[in-house]
Amino acid sequence: MFAKYFAAFSVFCLVFRYTYGATDTVVCYYANWAIYRPDKGVFHASDIDPNLCTIINYAFMGVYPNGTLQILDAWGDIELGNIAGVQALKEINPNLKTIISIGGWNAGNAILSPIAVSPELRANLIASSLEFFDLYGFDGLDIDWEYPEAKDKENFVTLLNELKTAFQPGGYLLTIAVSAIPIDDAYDIPQMSANVDLINLMTYDFHIAGGGITGENSPLYWGGADSPWQKEFENCNSTVVNWVDRGADPTKLTIGVPFYGHTFQLADPSNHGLGAPASDAGMSGPYTKGYGIMGFNEVAFLLRVSQVPVQMLSCFADL
Ligand SMILES: *[C@@H]1O[C@H](CO)[C@@H](O)[C@H](O)[C@H]1NC(C)=O
Ligand SMILES: *[C@@H]1O[C@H](CO)[C@@H](O)[C@H](O)[C@H]1NC(C)=O
C-alpha cells in the first residue's frame, strides 16, 4: 500500500548526488515560483533529477472563470523557459510524464465549483487542457481542488468522468490531490477513484502553527492514546486505511511526503518536546519565506551550522 510515494516538491525539491531509476509511481510537485528564490534557494527545472520522479506536476496553472486554462506567470513559464525546462527532462528520462496542476490552496473552491456545475464550462476546460498538452508537451492534468463542498459532490465526479473520457484516446493522465481526511459530504470516493489514474493524498500539515502545540508534520502512525499531541486519524497510515475503506482503489493511492517542516514559537523555551505549548509560527526559511515553514534545504543548513536540539532531529526523521 505504501509502495507509491508522492513527494511534495512545493516547498523544496531534493536532489540526490547519485541517481537511480524510480520503479514505481513517484509524483514530484515542482513549484514554478521556485525560480525566483534568492541566492542559494533558487531552483530551476534543470535542478530536478528526473530519474527520481516518474511524474512531475507543474504547479500551478490557473483557470479562467470560463474554464480555459491560464498561464499565471508568462514571464517565468514561457519567457524564462520554465515549462520548456521541465519538458527537457524527458531527454534524460524518456519515461517521465509531466502534468499540469490546477487549483491549490490559494485558488480555493471559488474557481472550480462553477466550472464543475456547468456543461459548457466543463467542455471549455477539457478543450483547453487538450490544447495545452499539445502546445506545451504536457501529459495530463492534476486537479488540486481545495476543497469541494457538498454541492459539488456529483459535479466533481461528472467533471472527472468527462475529462477521463476526453483524455483516454490520447493516453493523457488525470490525477487529483485530495484531503487526507476524507470529506464525506463532498467526496464520492468510489466514483472519484474509478475516473482518475492517481489519487495524491495530502498526508502532511497534520500539525501546524496555530494548533497550540508542537507536533509532527506527517506522522506515519498514531502514537496511541498516550500521544496527546497526535489525533487518532491524522497520520499517513489511517489516511490510507480510511481512503481504502471508503472505496478508493489502493493501486491508485499515493501518499504525500513533505520535504519541509513546520516551525513553532514555543510558549516556554525550556519545554520543547512534541506536544509542547506553542503560541505561534516559528521562523521562516530564508529562501522559501513561507509562514512557519522551512524547506529541507533550509533545515539542512541549520543542522550543519548550529547546535540543534535532539528532539528537532527526531521530528525530521518523519520527513
Ligand atoms: C476565456 O477567457 C479568456 C480570458 O478572457 C480568453 O482568452 C479565452 O479565449 C476564453 N475562452 C473561451 C472558450 O471563450
Ligand atoms: C492503521 O490505521 C488503522 C485505521 O486507523 C488502524 O486500525 C491500524 O491499527 C493502524 N495500524 C497501525 C500499525 O497503527
UniProtKB/TrEMBL annotation:
Annotated GO biological process: carbohydrate metabolic process; chitin catabolic process
Pfam families registered for this protein in UniProt: Glyco_hydro_18 (PF00704)
Record flagged with keyword Signal: yes
Keywords of the record: Glycosidase, Hydrolase, Signal
Coiled coil region boundaries: none
PROSITE patterns: GH18_1 (PS01095), GH18_2 (PS51910)
Residue span, GH18 domain: 24-319
Residues of the signal peptide: 1-21
Stored InterPro entries: Chitinase_II/V-like_cat (IPR011583), Chitinase_insertion_sf (IPR029070), GH (IPR017853), Glyco_hydro18_cat (IPR001223), Glyco_hydro_18_chit_AS (IPR001579), Glycosyl_Hydrlase_18 (IPR050314)
GO MF assignments: chitin binding; chitinase activity
Superkingdom of origin organism: Eukaryota
One GO cellular component term: extracellular region
Membership in a protein family: Belongs to the glycosyl hydrolase 18 family.
Name of the featured protein: Glyco hydro 18 domain containing protein
Organism (species): Asbolus verrucosus (Desert ironclad beetle)
